[in-house]
């Protein structure tokens, strides 16, 4: 690399920090800048390319990218990769591998630290505008997403340094070294629509550790993924290290995962898709040069469990923010709640229903909007079907919402059900939309322990969760009984809003491989260790002591 710096000493990566979020108060300089950027992005129809080996390729059948809250508005187009383009992306990743793997780790890390500053500076407005318009996020939700992208880069840089510092001990006469190699082959990153930060993080995490990558972003967030790719390049990422191909996830993954040099999958998305990808790896296992690393962070059915000692006001805030922010399209969104009758009937029900009915649904560029549109028509239809199924159950009472409107945008009104059946489908399945179901338990009858066992056993997922109580013994018991129910458990807080370096996210059971995105555990998956022992004074005698002596 042209800008190689030779460091003759210990390299210290700058201390990481969480990017402070701006609030875009109307009339503030940052809001004025962002309004202008929103106008610019709205006024364009962007033709987005694949980026393969540093070259932009526009060929292929086109897919329109629209604004979910105004689906007549076409924001851009992406091409669908054909087999040749996928092959070219794999070839480019393999061609870049040796020189990237041999690039000193601190230079690789420096590129992503530059990328972090481009996120928080030059590209912030464009990231927000594209995320708002194409993923239907409010100012606040788009801002925390952009901040999280910068956080990923800064914390990963810090965590990478910690991994490289891990070295074995060297007894007298030896020098032992751990060589933290990247994987042989290429990594496939397949990213979800719901976080621009996750889309940027999944290809860059393996890249930081010396791997080269084929990246298939979601077509539902392609506008912001294109910005991320441009800022990687501007930060100095060499051509071929990350190769972006748009198109069918199924077709791209089938081709890439049948390749001899497929070295790993970094996936975030639904559990069903991840299970399918795992099977594809199984079918191809004999083709591979090495066993691939399969990393997947997937769905959730995150519970809020309230004890009779809970603060009802804090509980209400957690339910509203946890379930309805970003239309419930967060893997960690609250979607089932267990509330004691004593609290529910003491005013919580009335206040909750009033609050949910008052949430403004609509265009995310209006500051008062709390809930935008769901991501696409498939999602709106899936939610409409779930709402009708729940309404038809005698065990369910609709307290708010329950309507889907598709004329201008794909709007699902914030919906609240209360159910007498704690094992209903609404308490088990992930819907990925603004749908919350409450089960009111009789705290005069039901033991806390029995309720916790019910929560633990109801859904196949184990991603996030919240416990609300002021009685500390109740918290301790819940943390124990729910130990395997969630990979991130919050006490007296909503289950969303993980902050890098503070709570990295990831869950077990059907929720994924629990590699804790943004933590050292996640980086470790992209390293293949090699121990090197150098003997400083090699043996010159092959015999054992006392050989040649007889008897004891
Ligand atoms: N656990 C986490 O950290 C986390 C974070 C964000 C999102 N999620 C989960 O992601 C899901 C929502 O995101 P989504 O709708 O983008 O998920 P999705 O599974 O539909 O899509 C994810 C990615 O996989 C691709 N894909 C779809 N079908 C495929 C197939 N058959 N083969 C290969 N690739 C395929 C998509 O194009 C996209 O790029 C939810 O289940 C949510 O809980 C989990
Ligand atoms: N950043 C999210 C997790 C990502 C899931 O979609 C959170 O709010 O905890």
UniProtKB/TrEMBL annotation:
Residue span(s) of domain Aldehyde dehydrogenase: 60-526
Top EC class of this enzyme: oxidoreductase
Gene3D superfamilies to which the protein is assigned, alphabetical: Aldehyde Dehydrogenase, Chain A, domain 1, Aldehyde Dehydrogenase, Chain A, domain 2
EC number: 1.2.1.88
UniProt-annotated catalytic positions: 297
Recorded GO MF terms: L-glutamate gamma-semialdehyde dehydrogenase activity
Source superkingdom: Bacteria
Catalytic activity line of the entry: L-glutamate 5-semialdehyde + NAD(+) + H2O = L-glutamate + NADH + 2 H(+)
Keyword annotations from UniProtKB, A to Z: NAD, Oxidoreductase, Proline metabolism
One Pfam match: Aldedh
SUPFAM superfamilies linked to this entry: ALDH-like (SSF53720)
Pathway of action: Amino-acid degradation; L-proline degradation into L-glutamate; L-glutamate from L-proline: step 2/2
UniProt family annotation: Belongs to the aldehyde dehydrogenase family.
Protein name listed in UniProt: L-glutamate gamma-semialdehyde dehydrogenase
């Amino acid at each position: 690399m042209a800008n190689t710096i030779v460091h003759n000493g210990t390299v210290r990566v700058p201390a990481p920090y969480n990017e402070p979020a701006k609030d875009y108060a109307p009339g503030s300089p940052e809001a004025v800048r962002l309004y202008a950027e929103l106008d610019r992005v709205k006024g364009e129809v962007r033709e987005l390319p694949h980026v393969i080996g540093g070259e932009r390729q526009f060929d292929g059948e086109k897919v329109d990218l629209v604004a979910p809250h105004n689906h007549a508005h076409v924001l851009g187009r992406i091409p669908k990769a054909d087999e040749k383009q996928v092959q070219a992306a794999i070839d480019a990743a393999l061609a870049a591998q040796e020189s990237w793997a041999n690039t000193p780790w601190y230079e690789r890390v420096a590129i992503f630290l530059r990328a972090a500053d481009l996120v928080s500076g030059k590209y912030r407005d464009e990231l927000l505008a594209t995320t708002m318009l194409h993923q239907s996020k409010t100012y606040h939700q788009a801002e925390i997403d952009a901040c999280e992208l910068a956080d990923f880069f800064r914390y990963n840089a810090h965590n990478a340094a910690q991994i490289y510092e891990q070295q074995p001990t060297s007894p007298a006469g030896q020098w032992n070294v751990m060589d933290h190699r990247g994987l042989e082959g290429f990594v496939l990153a397949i990213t979800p629509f719901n976080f621009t930060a996750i889309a940027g993080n999944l290809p860059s995490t393996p890249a930081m550790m010396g791997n080269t990558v084929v990246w298939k972003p979601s077509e539902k967030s392609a506008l912001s993924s294109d910005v991320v790719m441009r800022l990687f390049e501007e930060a100095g990422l060499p051509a071929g290290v990350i190769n972006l191909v748009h198109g069918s996830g199924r077709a791209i993954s089938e081709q890439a995962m049948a390749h001899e040099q497929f070295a790993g999958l970094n996936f975030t998305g639904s559990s069903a898709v991840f299970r399918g990808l795992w099977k594809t790896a199984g079918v191809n296992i004999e083709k591979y040069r090495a066993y691939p690393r399969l990393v997947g962070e997937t769905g959730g059915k995150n519970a809020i469990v309230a004890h009779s000692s809970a603060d009802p006001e804090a509980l209400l805030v957690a339910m509203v923010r946890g379930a309805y922010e970003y239309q419930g399209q967060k893997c960690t969104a609250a979607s089932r709640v267990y509330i004691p009758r004593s609290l529910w009937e003491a005013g919580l029900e009335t206040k909750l229903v009033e609050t949910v009915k008052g949430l403004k649904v609509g265009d995310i560029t209006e500051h008062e909007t709390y809930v935008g549109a769901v991501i696409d028509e498939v999602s709106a239809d899936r939610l409409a079907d779930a709402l009708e199924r729940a309404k038809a159950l005698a065990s369910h009472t609709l307290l708010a919402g329950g309507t889907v409107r598709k004329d201008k945008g794909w709007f699902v009104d914030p919906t609240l059900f209360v159910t007498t059946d704690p094992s209903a489908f609404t308490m088990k399945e992930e819907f990925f939309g603004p749908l919350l179901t409450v089960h009111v338990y009789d705290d005069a009858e039901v033991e806390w322990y029995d309720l916790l066992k019910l929560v633990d056993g109801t859904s196949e997922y184990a991603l996030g969760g919240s416990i609300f109580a002021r009685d500390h013994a109740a918290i301790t018991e819940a943390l124990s009984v729910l130990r395997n129910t969630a990979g991130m458990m919050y006490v007296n807080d909503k289950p969303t809003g993980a902050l890098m370096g503070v709570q990295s996210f990831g869950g077990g059971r059907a929720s994924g491989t629990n590699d804790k995105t943004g933590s050292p555990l996640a980086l470790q998956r992209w390293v293949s260790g090699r121990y090197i022992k150098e003997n400083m004074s090699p043996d010159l005698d092959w015999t054992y002591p006392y050989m040649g002596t007889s008897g004891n």
